[in-house]
Amino acid sequence: MVALLIGLYTFYILVRLYVSVMQIGYINQVKRKGAVLMGEAEYLDAANYAVAKEKLSMIEAFVEYGLFLVWMMGLIYWVDSQLMGQSVPVQSIVAVLGMLLIHSLITLPFGWIAKFKIDAKYGFNRSTTGQFVKDTLISTVLTIVIGSAIVWIISMIMTSSTLWWLWSFTFIFAVVIALNMFFPTLRALFFDKVTPLENSELRTKIEELMSKTGFVSSGVFVSDASKRDARLNAYFGGLGKTKRVVLFDTLIEKLSPSELIAVLGHELGHFAHGDLYKNIAMVGAMLFGMFALFGNIPESLYLELGVAQSPHVSMILFILFLPMVSFMIMPLMGMMSRHNEYEADRTGAELGGAEYLVNALKKLVSENKSFPLSHPLYRFFHTTHPPVIDRLRALGYDIRASDDEGFGDPCPVD
């Protein structure tokens, strides 16, 4: 059983690496052709940025695989032996939180490289080392506090019911919903400074836009995201009465009011179509399947690992295999998400004007250095948004599709 699971995980890593290799090869080939949606220099810059991020992702995959093998080939047994004699909640909290903290420490250099090497090279990073350390410490403390409470509750559920996997799923799903509700508040408390939008004219336009779709918000706010990053973004956060509109200050700086209204019209399209609830339902379905699977693991697996069938071992296995299961499910979630993006674009065009949404999308691509082309396999496994070229065409924007621009062959790399 252990050999089978290691084999499945190995296959997952190989597929993930193959997709990355195809993506890098594709970008390196098409970047030599005519620029799309950008000037030549910008286009080349965006291509090199995408390749640099993908190469770092491949190294991370190797490290993830190494950690998986270490756990499966002895570390689970060692941790279990060290915790013998402790109460079930103590075993679970120490084992699971220890695992998460070890993984965070080992992968921390990748976050630093991504921010202070790659993002800094391409003009995105505005954070300082002090800010990075502060954010990391806050995230770690939140993980310990919230994670300990969650692990303790799940360990108690697992020892009190034969249907523990069903009740654990119910509890975790409730946590997911709660985090979606309070995410804007938590982010404002610990990370970004969020203030009410001062531009009364723009605020009035946004409020009028929200009223057209029945979106009731607790307010329109501006985040000082520029202190960390130069990218443009905005989000509608929360559920029920906690909903709020948060605009990155970089977005307000780069987009005209009409373009900004069109972008928010797109986001309101997600609300009007219930996309947030669809996404939560998809996550719920994935979690249900995961809990059902790990709630019925054959006892032979525990015997092969040399450990007892205990809550902390089950939780460690759950966390170890979550990336693989997520990768397998991502194509289905991505397909649904890409469909939702087209629908939201239609709403954004209706509410804010197709011309302004097209201009906004082009600016977002340019400012965020989002390379507009990708290998079909990469899109299948990773992307939640349709290619921006397809989105622009759907909005009526005329893009020439000649072989010289790299569109004639949708997959120029075999």
- Cα-based radius of gyration, to the nearest Å: 23 Å
Poorly predicted parts: 401-414
Structural class: mainly alpha
- Cα-to-Cα separation, first versus last residue: 35 Å
Q: Main β-sheet, in a few words?
A: 4 strands, mixed
Helix content: over 70%
- What is the mean predicted local confidence, pLDDT? 87
Q: Any idea how many domains?
A: 1
Task: Give the beta-strand count.
Answer: 4
**Global outline:** globular
Spatially, the strands of the biggest sheet line up as 1-2-4-3
β-strand amount: under 5%
Question: What's the order of the H and E elements?
Answer: HHHHHEHEEEHHHHHHHH
Number of helices: 14
Overview of the structural elements:
The chain is built from 14 helices and 4 strands. The chain is mostly helical and 414 residues long. The protein has one domain. It has a 4-stranded mixed β-sheet. The longest helix is centred in the N-terminal third of the chain and has 43 residues, at 40-82. The chain is globular, with a radius of gyration of 23 Å.
Write a compact overview of the structure shown.
This protein has 414 residues and is mainly alpha-helical.
List keywords for this structure.
single chain, 414 residues, mainly alpha, 4-stranded mixed sheet, 14 helices
Ordered list of secondary-structure elements with their pairings:
Blueprint: H1 2-30, H2 40-82, H3 88-121, H4 129-158, H5 164-190, E1 194-196, H6 200-213, E2 220-223, E3 234-237, E4 244-248, H7 249-254, H8 257-272, H9 275-294, H10 299-305, H11 311-352, H12 354-367, H13 376-382, H14 388-394
Parallel strand pairs: 2-4
Antiparallel strand pairs: 1-2, 3-4
Helix pairs in contact: 1-2, 1-11, 1-13, 2-3, 2-11, 3-4, 3-11, 4-5, 5-9, 6-8, 8-11, 8-12, 9-11, 11-12, 11-13
